[in-house]
C-alpha cells in the first residue's frame, strides 16, 4: 500500500509541474527572486558536478553537509546551527537549499567560499535523483518541518543519512499526517534521526513513526542578535519622545485588525496624531505611543503603506530614513534583515501571526533583543516557548488584538514595569540555550566524526 501511495503521489507531483511553473512566474512579478534559476527546482543545474565537488581526499567529510531551510524563519534557525557545525566540523562545505525567495536571500549571507546554494528540488523522483547525483551530500539536515516523501526515499536508496533537526510537529500537522499515513509514515520512518524541540513534539512525531532520538530544545534560543543593529535601534529608541510599540512580522489582515481596534477605542494619541506633535516634548509622557509596523513579507510593504495612508495616517518608511526615523503617525519597517534593529527600537512588540490564526512568528528573537512581547491567542508554531515566556513574565497573552493594544500601550508607558520585564529577558534566554551544540554533536556522530571541543 505504501508503494502504491508513493507511486500515486509521484504521478501527481509530476503532473503538477506546469502549475508550479505558473505559480513561480506569478510570484516573480512581486518577488523577482522566484524567477531566478528556475531550472534548479527540477534538478537542472548550470554547473557540472565536477566543478562543484572537490576530490574526496580534500573533503574531510566526504561530501557536502546539506541543510534545507525552506523559508526565512528556518533559515535563521539554520544560521544558528551552521555556526556551531562550522566550529565542531572544521572544513565542512555547505549545501544550502530553500523553497522561498526570502529564505534564499537570507541564506546567501551564510555562504563561504566552496559552499553552494540552490533551490530545493520539486519532489518528483526525477528532480530528486538529479539533485542527489549532482551534489552527493554526506548528510542532509531538514529544518523543523520539511519532510518530502520522494526526497526521503531518494536519500534512503543512496545511503545518505537524512535527519529532521529542531523538529516541531503540532496537533494539526499530526492530524494531516494521519490522514495521509500511507505516505507520511514511511517518509518519517525512513529518516535517520529526529531531534525535537519539545517533548510534546517528540510524542507526536513518534506516533507517526519518526525515529526521535532526543529532545534538544529550540535552536532559536541560541541566537546572538547583531550587536550593531541592536545598538542602533536602541539609540533611535532613546531619541524618541514616545515609547515605541511594534507590530512585529504582521501577517495578512492583522494590520486591518489593529486599525479597527484603534478606531474602536477612539484614542487620539494612537491614531491621527499630527506629525509635528509626535516628537514634541510637550506631548511626551502623556501615555501615548509611537507605532512601528513591520510586515512579515516584503511583497506586502506597499500594500500595508497604502492601508495606513487610507486610514488617514502619515507614514515614515525605513527605506527613506537617513540617520534616524522621521516624524509620522506610524513608522513602517519596509526592509529585510533588520528585525534586530526593529526590536532594539521597540519598547514592546505585538507578535504578528498570533492575532490571525497563523500560529505566531518567532517570539524568541524579540526576547533575545530585550523586547517584551504581547501574544495573541494563536501561537501553535511556538507553543512551548510562548507558554514558558508567559510564565516567566517576558511575554503576555491576550484574547484579541484590542486587548493587545491596551496591554502593549500600558506596558510601554509604565517605566518600572517595563524595566522589570526587560530585566527578565536575558535570564530567560540563558535558561534555554544549548540546542545548537547538542545538534551539531549529533550530526558529527552520524558522520562518525568526533566533534571539535
From TrEMBL:
<dbReference type="Pfam" id="PF04413">
    <property type="entry name" value="Glycos_transf_N"/>
</dbReference>
<comment type="function">
    <text>Involved in lipopolysaccharide (LPS) biosynthesis. Catalyzes the transfer of 3-deoxy-D-manno-octulosonate (Kdo) residue(s) from CMP-Kdo to lipid IV(A), the tetraacyldisaccharide-1,4'-bisphosphate precursor of lipid A.</text>
</comment>
<keyword id="KW-0472">Membrane</keyword>
<dbReference type="InterPro" id="IPR038107">
    <property type="entry name" value="Glycos_transf_N_sf"/>
</dbReference>
<dbReference type="GO" id="GO:0009245">
    <property type="term" value="P:lipid A biosynthetic process"/>
</dbReference>
<feature type="site" description="Transition state stabilizer">
    <location>
        <position position="144"/>
    </location>
</feature>
<keyword id="KW-1003">Cell membrane</keyword>
<feature type="active site" description="Proton acceptor">
    <location>
        <position position="74"/>
    </location>
</feature>
<dbReference type="GO" id="GO:0009244">
    <property type="term" value="P:lipopolysaccharide core region biosynthetic process"/>
</dbReference>
<dbReference type="GO" id="GO:0005886">
    <property type="term" value="C:plasma membrane"/>
</dbReference>
<feature type="site" description="Transition state stabilizer">
    <location>
        <position position="220"/>
    </location>
</feature>
<dbReference type="InterPro" id="IPR039901">
    <property type="entry name" value="Kdotransferase"/>
</dbReference>
<protein>
    <recommendedName>
        <fullName>3-deoxy-D-manno-octulosonic acid transferase</fullName>
        <ecNumber>2.4.99.12</ecNumber>
    </recommendedName>
</protein>
<keyword id="KW-0808">Transferase</keyword>
<keyword id="KW-0448">Lipopolysaccharide biosynthesis</keyword>
<dbReference type="InterPro" id="IPR007507">
    <property type="entry name" value="Glycos_transf_N"/>
</dbReference>
<dbReference type="GO" id="GO:0043842">
    <property type="term" value="F:Kdo transferase activity"/>
</dbReference>
<comment type="pathway">
    <text>Bacterial outer membrane biogenesis; LPS core biosynthesis.</text>
</comment>
<feature type="domain" description="3-deoxy-D-manno-octulosonic-acid transferase N-terminal">
    <location>
        <begin position="38"/>
        <end position="223"/>
    </location>
</feature>
<comment type="similarity">
    <text>Belongs to the glycosyltransferase group 1 family.</text>
</comment>
Amino acid at each position: 500500500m505504501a508503494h502504491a501511495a508513493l507511486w500515486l503521489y509521484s504521478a501527481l507531483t509530476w503532473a503538477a509541474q506546469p502549475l508550479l511553473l505558473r505559480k513561480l512566474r506569478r510570484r516573480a512579478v512581486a518577488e523577482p527572486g522566484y524567477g531566478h534559476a528556475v531550472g534548479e527546482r527540477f534538478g537542472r543545474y548550470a554547473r557540472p558536478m565536477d566543478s562543484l565537488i572537490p576530490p574526496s581526499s580534500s573533503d574531510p567529510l566526504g561530501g557536502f553537509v546539506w541543510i534545507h531551510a525552506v523559508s526565512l524563519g528556518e533559515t535563521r534557525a539554520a544560521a544558528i546551527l551552521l555556526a556551531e557545525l562550522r566550529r565542531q566540523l572544521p572544513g565542512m562545505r555547505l549545501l544550502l537549499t530553500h523553497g522561498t525567495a526570502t529564505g534564499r536571500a537570507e541564506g546567501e549571507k551564510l555562504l563561504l567560499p566552496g559552499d553552494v546554494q540552490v533551490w530545493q528540488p520539486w519532489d518528483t523522483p526525477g528532480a530528486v535523483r538529479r539533485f542527489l547525483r549532482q551534489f552527493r551530500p554526506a548528510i542532509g539536515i531538514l529544518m523543523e518541518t520539511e519532510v518530502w516523501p520522494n526526497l526521503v526515499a531518494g536519500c534512503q536508496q543512496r545511503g545518505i543519512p537524512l535527519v529532521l533537526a529542531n523538529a516541531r510537529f503540532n496537533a494539526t500537522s499530526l492530524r494531516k499526517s494521519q490522514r495521509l499515513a500511507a505516505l507520511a509514515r514511511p517518509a518519517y520512518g525512513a529518516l535517520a534521526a529526529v531531534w525535537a524541540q519539545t517533548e510534546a513534539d517528540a510524542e507526536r512525531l513518534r506516533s507517526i513513526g519518526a525515529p526521535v532520538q532526543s529532545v534538544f530544545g529550540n535552536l532559536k534560543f541560541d541566537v546572538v542578535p547583531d550587536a550593531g543593529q541592536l545598538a542602533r535601534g536602541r539609540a533611535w529608541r532613546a531619541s524618541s519622545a514616545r515609547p515605541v510599540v511594534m507590530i512585529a512580522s504582521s501577517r495578512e489582515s492583522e494590520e486591518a485588525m489593529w486599525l479597527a481596534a484603534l478606531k474602536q477605542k477612539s484614542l487620539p494619541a494612537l491614531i491621527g496624531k499630527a506629525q509635528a506633535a509626535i516628537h514634541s516634548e510637550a506631548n511626551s509622557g502623556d501615555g501615548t505611543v509611537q507605532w512601528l509596523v513591520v510586515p512579515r513579507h516584503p511583497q506586502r510593504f506597499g500594500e500595508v503603506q497604502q492601508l495606513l495612508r487610507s486610514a488617514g495616517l502619515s507614514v515614515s518608511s525605513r527605506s527613506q530614513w537617513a540617520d534616524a526615523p522621521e516624524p509620522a503617525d506610524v513608522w513602517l519597517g519596509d526592509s529585510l534583515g533588520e528585525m534586530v534593529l526593529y526590536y532594539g527600537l521597540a519598547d514592546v512588540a505585538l507578535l504578528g501571526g498570533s492575532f490571525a490564526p497563523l500560529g505566531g512568528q518567532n517570539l524568541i528573537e524579540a526576547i533575545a533583543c530585550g523586547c517584551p512581547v504581547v501574544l495573541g491567542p494563536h501561537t501553535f508554531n511556538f507553543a512551548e516557548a510562548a507558554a514558558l515566556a508567559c510564565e516567566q513574565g517576558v511575554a503576555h497573552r491576550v484574547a484579541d488584538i484590542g486587548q493587545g493594544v491596551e496591554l502593549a500601550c500600558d506596558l510601554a508607558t509604565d517605566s518600572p514595569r517595563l524595566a522589570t520585564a526587560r530585566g527578565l529577558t536575558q535570564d530567560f534566554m540563558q535558561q534555554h540555550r544549548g540546542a545548537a551544540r547538542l545538534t551539531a554533536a549529533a550530526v558529527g556522530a552520524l558522520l562518525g566524526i568526533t566533534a571539535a571541543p
